[in-house]
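Escalation from tier 1.

The customer reports that the assembly of two entities below gives different structure tokens on two consecutive runs. Tier 1 could not reproduce it. I'm attaching the input and our single run for tier 2 to review.
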Amino acid sequence: MRKLIGILLIGGFAFYLVTVGMGLFTPESSSELNSIGSEIISTSPDLSGAANTVTAVVVQYRGFDTLGEVTVLFVSALGVGMFAAAIKDGLLKDLFDDDGGFVLQAGSLALLPFIALVGLYIIFHGHLSPGGGFPGGVIIATAVFVVILTSRTLNIPGGLINLLETLAGLSFLAIGFVGLYSPAQSFLANILPKGEFGTLLSAGFIPVIYAIVAVKVASELINIIAKLTAAGSASEEAAE
Amino acid sequence: MTVPQILYVSAFLLILIGLYSMITQRNMIRMIIGLNIADLGVNLFLVTIGYVDKGSAPIFRADAAAGTMVDPVPQALVLTSIVIGFGVTALALTLVMRLFVTHGSIDTARIRGLKW
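Tier 1 run:
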């Protein structure tokens, strides 16, 4: 069975190699952009005011998709919470028995503000340089994850994190509806002043949306991590 | 071979490696790793679609001349794809945790009711 699958996949790869060598399935030349990409690059500085065109696509041109993307992340966090809540077995008991030691625990706490600072920098420069709400939110969640990895018992206020997540989602929708009732009359219209191109305070609502996305991503990830580790160590706490 | 051709072949190879481990492995964690490798292959494929010869990153800078830029649309799509991939991985790992608790194993051959 395993050999058969291997032969099939290698055969498929060989076929693909031959077709690529003949020039099939790949664009003939890659010296120019196609119409959509070149049009977005030419219109995005005036339309969105963001120096980073990828950010302009994510927030300005496809803002509704980003709302859906954040929703997918929310549903995934919901599913993780639902399944992890039913786990009462001490899966990660070894991890929690093995104390990280004083140096690691103190070091992780000392690292936390600096990692969070890098995350904040990446969030607020999302419209100027590579980065934005998604990677920045993940980096902030990483700061908490490093602390949890050293098996320090961290009292994460679940209610506060849920509140932040809810507020972020609602304000995303609220900004969308503000655009709907503004003169522009479209959902998630960029109505804020654009500012000077290429500076920190520019691109209208793009930094605002990215900050909201970052809050949502960071709180959801911290929620997932907290729920998974709580599920792993639940029985241990109950035994004590 | 040109640069995009090498990238297309690498992306296809990554997807096949992921598929192989998803089909043949019995350990569920390895299946999820295979899923992630295939995911990386798809991301590489999407980014390669936007490739332009001697293109720069699609970011406007004051000092740089306005040369050709690569396509920003596939890169934005990949951003979405990475986030969705993360959600799928987290959910799959939680399901594996549940299976380990209820069946005592993450080997698909040892879990009753999963044989086919």
